[in-house]
Design goal:
The protein is an alpha/beta fold. The protein has three domains: 186 residues, 3-Layer(aba) Sandwich (Rossmann fold); 46 residues, no CATH class; 190 residues, Nucleotidyltransferase, domain 5 (2-Layer Sandwich). 29% of the residues lie in helices and 21% in strands.
Length: 444
C-alpha cells in the first residue's frame, strides 16, 4: 500500500522492482496482488507493461533488473517512488545506481523516497549496509528499529552519522540520505497466518540454516526475526544427531520400485596424476529406500579411480545391489555430464543397464539426470528431512563415515552428500512427501 500513498497527485510515478520478470507475473506475485488492491482505487491496468494508471494521471509500474546492466535502462529516469521487493536479491551496484534516479521532475510536492523489503542473507552487501542494526549474534536490535541515521557513499564506501548536520559538516560537498530499518517477523503477518495456518509448519520443515535465516529464535512476540549470520557450518547444516541408526533387521522390506540407487561419477585418474589444479573428486553412490513417509539409507560407497575402473564398478555394483534388493524394486539414477558427450555417455550406460548382454539381469529404470546449481543448495530438502527425523541410516561399516561426512559440511568433499540429496530429490519426485517473513527498510 505504501506505493499508492501519492496516487492522487498529478505527475506522481513509481516503480516497484523484482529481480526477475517471472517473479512479477508468477502466481500470487506482485501483479496478482496488485489486481486485488489497485482496482479499489480506480486504477486501470496495462498488463503488457505491468503498469497501472490512476484518475489523477499518476502511474505505478512493476519492473525487473535480472542482469547487472539492466539498471542502465533507467539512465535519465526521474522516479519519485522506488520499491525493492526482496532487496537481498539485487546487487549493491543496482541499488545505489537506482538511488540516483530517485528524484521528482514535477512540482506536486512529493519528496522522492525508497522502500524495500528483505530477508537476511549472510556475507552480503546488504548485511554490511545495515550492520548498525544487527547484533553480534546476527539478530536485529529491536531497540534500534526506526532510529533514523544518515549516510553518504564515496568511492563505494558508506559513511554513517547520526544527523544531517553532522554529515554535512563532515562531507560538505555531499547531500546525505536518511535511512532506517524496521524489523518485521512472520508473526506480524496476521492475515497470512489466519489464511494459511500451515505456513509456520513450512518454515519449520526447512533445513536448520534456512529456518534460522527466515524465522530465527523464539515464537510469537518473542521471535527475534531471521538471523543475518545463518549459513552452513559444521554441525549446523547437518547434525549427526539427526540421523537415526538402525540395524539391518529393522529396515522395512523392499517393495516394487521402493529403492533408488544414485551415483555421482568422477573419473579422477587425471586428477590423481597431479595435472589438475582441483582437489580430486570421489565417485560415490547412495541407495535409499522409501517406506511410509520415511527414507532409509541402506548402502553407500565411494572411491577414487580412473574412467575404466569407475565404469566397471558402476555396472558391477549396480547389478549387485539389484540382486540384493530384488528384481523390479530398484531404480538407478546418475548425474549426467553437460554437453553432447555427456548425453552420449548417458545413453550408452542406460543401454548397458536396461538392455544388458550375456544374461545379465535387466534394470527396469535407469536414467541420467542433469546436475544443476550449488551442491549445498541442492542438499537443503534432504537436510530438512534429516532435521525432521525422516531419515534412518542402516548400521554398516560405512555408516560412521557417512554421518561424519554430512555433519562436517560444507567442505570440499561433497560427493556423498550430493548423492544423498540426489537420491532424496528423486524419491521426493516420485511421491514422498514441506512468503517468507519480510523486514522493511525505509529511506529518504
Amino acid at each position: 500500500m505504501e506505493s499508492v500513498r501519492h496516487i492522487g497527485k498529478r505527475g506522481y510515478g513509481g516503480i516497484i522492482f523484482r529481480r526477475t520478470y517471472p517473479q512479477i507475473k508468477n502466481e500470487g506475485g506482485l501483479w496478482d496482488e496488485s489486481q486485488d488492491i489497485y482496482p479499489l482505487l480506480d486504477g486501470k491496468p496495462n498488463q503488457s507493461s505491468f503498469s497501472w494508471r490512476f484518475p489523477a494521471g499518476s502511474t505505478l509500474t512493476f519492473s525487473h533488473m535480472q542482469h547487472e546492466d539492466d539498471r542502465l535502462q533507467y539512465d535519465g529516469s526521474q522516479i519519485q517512488f522506488i520499491g525493492f521487493d526482496q532487496l537481498e536479491q539485487f546487487t549493491e551496484q543496482q541499488f545505489f545506481y537506482l538511488l540516483t534516479r530517485n528524484r521528482n521532475r514535477t512540482s506536486n510536492g512529493v519528496r522522492p523516497y525508497v522502500r524495500a523489503t528483505c530477508n537476511p542473507m549472510p556475507d552480503h552487501w546488504l548485511g554490511e549496509f545495515i550492520a548498525w542494526w544487527i547484533d553480534s549474534e546476527g539478530y536485529i536490535i529491536k531497540e534500534r528499529c526506526g532510529i533514523v541515521r544518515w549516510f553518504v557513499r564515496l568511492n563505494k564506501k558508506v559513511h554513517w552519522g547520526n544527523s544531517y548536520e553532522e554529515m554535512r559538516t563532515r562531507f560538505p560537498s555531499q547531500r546525505p540520505k536518511s535511512f532506517t530499518f524496521i524489523l518485521a517477523t512472520v508473526y506480524d503477518n496476521k492475515i497470512l497466518l489466519k489464511n494459511d495456518p500451515g505456513y509456520l509448519g513450512q518454515l519449520y520443515a526447512q533445513d536448520n540454516v534456512e529456518f534460522m535465516r527466515l524465522h530465527g529464535e523464539g515464537e510469537g512476540v518473542d521471535n527475534r526475526g531471521g538471523n543475518w549470520h545463518a549459513k552452513p557450518e559444521a554441525g549446523k547444516f547437518f547434525h549427526e544427531d539427526w540421523f537415526q541408526v538402525i540395524s539391518r533387521d529393522k529396515i522395512p522390506q523392499a517393495a516394487p520400485l521402493s529403492d533408488l540407487l544414485y551415483w555421482d561419477l568422477a573419473a579422477t585418474e587425471r586428477e590423481l596424476a597431479g595435472t589438475s589444479t582441483r582437489p580430486p573428486s570421489h565417485t560415490a553412490c547412495i541407495q535409499m529406500r522409501k517406506h511410509a513417509g520415511l527414507v532409509y539409507i541402506i548402502f553407500a560407497d565411494w572411491f577414487m579411480k580412473g574412467p575404466a575402473v569407475v565404469e566397471r564398478r558402476f555396472l558391477d555394483t549396480t547389478r549387485a545391489q539389484q540382486r540384493e534388493t530384488g528384481r523390479g524394486k530398484l531404480r538407478v539414477f546418475w548425474e549426467m555430464e553437460p554437453g553432447s558427450a555427456g548425453k552420449r555417455e548417458a545413453f550408452r550406460l542406460q543401454r548397458e543397464l536396461m538392455h544388458p548382454l550375456g544374461g545379465q539381469q535387466r534394470i527396469e529404470i535407469a536414467r541420467a539426470v542433469p546436475s544443476r546449481g550449488d551442491k549445498m543448495e541442492r542438499a537443503r530438502p534432504f537436510a530438512a528431512a534429516a532435521k525432521n527425523g525422516l531419515v534412518y541410516v542402516m548400521e554398516a561399516s560405512w555408516t560412521k563415515h557417512l554421518i561424519s561426512h554430512l555433519h562436517n559440511q560444507p567442505q570440499h568433499d561433497q560427493d556423498l552428500m550430493d548423492c544423498c540429496s540426489g537420491s532424496y530429490t528423486q524419491i521426493l519426485a516420485s511421491g514422498l512427501g514441506p512468503q517468507r517473513q519480510r523486514s522493511k527498510s525505509r529511506m529518504r
